[in-house]
Each structure stands twice: as C-alpha cells, then as structure tokens.
Amino acid sequence: MINLTPAEFRDALRQERLVAILRGPDPRAVAHAGRVLVECGVRILEVSLSSADALASLEELAQAFADSDALLGAGTVIAPGDAARCRDAGAVFAVTPALGPGLQESVDLGLPVLAGALTPTEVLAAYRAGASAVKVFPASVFGPGYLTALAAPFPDVPLVAVGGVAAADVRAYLDAGALAVGVASPLLGDAPAGGDLDALRSRASAFLSHVRVCRG
Is 204 part of a structural domain of the chain? Predict the structure, then answer.
C-alpha cells in the first residue's frame, strides 16, 4: 500500500479531474466495475461504505491495483473507526459526506481526505480541520455557478464537485473552478449491481472525453 500525501492527492485530482464513486449491493460486482473503470483509464476510485460489504470490495481492489497507478479510496467515512478500517483494507484516501468524526480521524491517521461541505461556513470549517480538498456536495443543487461563487472568497481551497454531475456537466464544473468532479450513478449506472459492463465502458469513455478536453 502506498503512502499518499495530501499534496500528492491534490496533484492527482488536478491531473485526473475525475473520481469514480463505486456504490452497490453486490461486493463482487462493485470490485469488477472498479477494475473495468481502471482498464478504461479512470485512475481515482472511491468505494462507498454504504455499499454491501464495502471492506471486501476495498480489499479486492487494493490487491488488484497493487502494481498500478490507480488510487483507491473509501467514501462515506462517517463514524469513529471507519477511517482506520478502510486504511487497513487498502484505502489510501478517505471521503466524507460532511464534517464530523470521519474527517477528524482521517486527518489524525494521515490519510488525505476529501471532506464534504456545502455552505461557505462548512467549506471553511472543513479546510481548517485539515481536509486535503473540499467536496461540494450535493453540487447539482446549485450548479456550476455555485462553484464559481465559492471559489471567489476561497481561492486557495481546492473544491471538488460531487453529486448529480452528468458527463455533459463536467466542463461547466471544471471551468467554474472545480479541481475535479466526483461521479457515482451517472457513470456507474447498474454496473455495481451486476449490470451492463459494456454500457459502463461507454459511459467511462464519455466522461473521460470531457475531462481530456478540460485538461488540454
């Protein structure tokens, strides 16, 4: 397992600009979907703890990616002990939906953390608490313009737009100042439940095409 620093995590977000969020009822299907995404060129993946037997999926993917440049993290890190269990299962970064014990424990363990926030007060609190970057969630509630508004008073806070981001929305969020976007169902579809992997490959290609335009 690699040791990822907050600065390296931010650099990876800045370079890749896409985080795939894996969440589903079938741990083997979740892991299979993760492998397919990496084969397609997605390099940052998050396994949500709201998935069935999420730690098993994390362990399987951590082993699968041991010799790759993919970065594997754990999402929905909320309760005390979550961050430590995820680190032990192979996660190299953590993602939280909000402020709370998951953020603090991740910081204490030295895990880079993408911390969820929505309001300006929460964004500032998350960054001051040690978040490597701040997840603006749910981003679709206010849209790309809200990212622009947040970036104005917080130019030094790396913001990642998460929640309801479709492939066609990627460029608008990145142009609005988001360091990256995080995407669950618009990218994964039914794949984490054992669904169509060819459709997953097609969606991955669409998201990556939008990301590459913004990288250029």
Answer: yes
